[in-house]
Write a structure and sequence with these properties.
Layout (H helix, E strand, L loop, with lengths): L2 H27 L19 H58 L10 H27 L1
């Protein structure tokens, strides 16, 4: 829904409410015992069920239209936001992969046996896992 449609719907609502108020004012003026001036204590006008139902329907339609308009406006931003989120997480996973890759390089001489053998294996596994997560995140962002 564009701004023009929203303005039209709001204008229609204002006109309907204005007509209802005008009809009530005319009905109050035509009551028997009514004087030329305003009555001392005007009776409270309670809307009937049909008027209430009509106003509720119009309000519901306007709310739905506004929701569709806002949803249509935000849809491109949600797509871009999703792509940006995937790229940021891919970048962070890449940083973790580089961090663990440094540890693999530092302990590379202990790959078969040695005091840092377990650390080398753990750093290798974590490097592979985070590299996979980084690459897959960028690929998913590219597909979007």
């Amino acid at each position: 829904m564009n701004a023009s449609e929203l303005g039209k719907r709001l204008g229609i609502g204002v006109r309907v409410v204005g007509r209802i108020a005008q009809q009530r004012a005319q009905a109050a003026a035509q009551q028997p015992g009514s004087s030329v001036g305003p009555p001392a204590a005007a009776p409270r006008m309670i809307p009937n069920a049909a008027e209430i139902h009509e106003v509720k329907q119009k309000t519901r339609k306007l709310t739905r239209a506004a929701g569709r308009g806002v949803g249509g406006f935000l849809r491109p931003f949600s797509r871009i936001g999703g792509i940006l989120w995937l790229e940021i997480t891919g970048f962070l996973f890449g940083l973790f992969a580089l961090f663990f890759c440094q540890d693999v390089w530092r302990t590379r001489l202990n790959y078969a046996s040695g005091p840092l053998h377990q650390r080398f294996l753990m750093a290798t596994v974590l490097t592979v896992v985070f590299a996979y997560l980084s690459v897959s995140s960028f690929l998913r962002a590219r597909r979007k």
